[in-house]
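User: For my dataset I need records formatted as: sequence, then structure tokens, nothing else. Please produce one.
Assistant:
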Amino acid sequence: MERLLIVSNRLPITVHKRKGELHFEPSTGGLATALGSFYKSYNCLWIGWPGISLERIEGEQKDIKARLMSENCYPIFLSQQDIEGYYHGFSNRTIWPLFHYLTFYTVYREDLWQAYEQVNEAFSKAIMEVAQPDDIIWIHDYHLMLLPRLLREKFPRASIGFFLHIPFPSFEIFRLLPWRKEILEGLLGADLVGFHTYEYMRHFLASLHRLLGYEANLGQILTEERVVKADVFPLGIDYERFSTAVQEPRTKAEITKFRKRLGGRKVILSIDRLDYTKGIPQRLKAFDAFLDRNPEYKERLIFIMIVSPSRTEVGDYALLKRQIDELVGAINGKHGTIGWVPIWYLPHSLPFHSLIALYNIADIALVTPIRDGMNLVAKEYLATKRDGRGVLILSETAGAATELGEAIIINVNNEEEVVQALEKALAMPE
């Protein structure tokens, strides 16, 4: 029977160890959220890292593997050295900032590249252990861009797909990468390479042409060996889950609780992972400018800002958190009054029903990434608006902006434009 192998850096289940005890919890993040319910509906096996270093689970791998296999998950165990070089290193200090056009954060180190190669090889060997001739292999995201070629060499007739969940940058940015040809050749091991937007696909095809000389016609790339297809598949959400959750008793209880605490004030909402691609400092500075220019809104609105911790081991992220903490403190100190602070800042994630309640009561969702592959928060916000009330302010450099053109589209680097968008969103008729 045909089976789907989903391959990604992380499994949909994360293993933690606290006080000597193993804990298995759902993974967070856009990829796990997008595919978490999907993979259980099909004949699937999900292959990936369970989120804990090999050194912390010595002697327990067999038990962990058995538990994960009962959930159709096949673990790949990585050492702390692998994690530092491949994940914290090349994936998140080289590819992540470069592909988001933040070249000043990007590092180019041979040792990190070698770690990336080694872990992609480890994934290839693990897949060989479980793959069957009729399996469809579906590889996800920037951590595993060498894997399609590695698998193609071992399974010449395999059906292999690859989907990139982040932007693919323009040629002028991509060419900065010393290992650019190796990355492209790795991706060409797939039969189908997918992207969120046509812009990302065009950048990929341009880089193939400029660096490897391959022509493309209607998304079909003719290589020396075979034809590879590139296409666009914008990532969506489970609309029914978000839409119907508004009517659930737990959500209604949360809505009542929040409304009581908010006291009839207007609500601006933003929800992000802690990341320098999300434009959080720019958003805060624009909100500060908005309050300076519109003092009549003081005590009449609340900006609820949720920032989930992420990659806290990376120095740039710790620095960003400190910058955000200082900005929030300065704005609340400058504009706050007795009994009212303009920003409710939550530096942690919230339970699902609390998030749905906040989406539902928010008058404005302020989604302002500097650059984002798609951005599902924008779609989740809209899905909870069964009555149609609410305004989405969305950065033009989020992939979602190509689909959600009825939003107020802004340039996150234009502070005046963001201020005007807030004024328009608060004043426009229903």
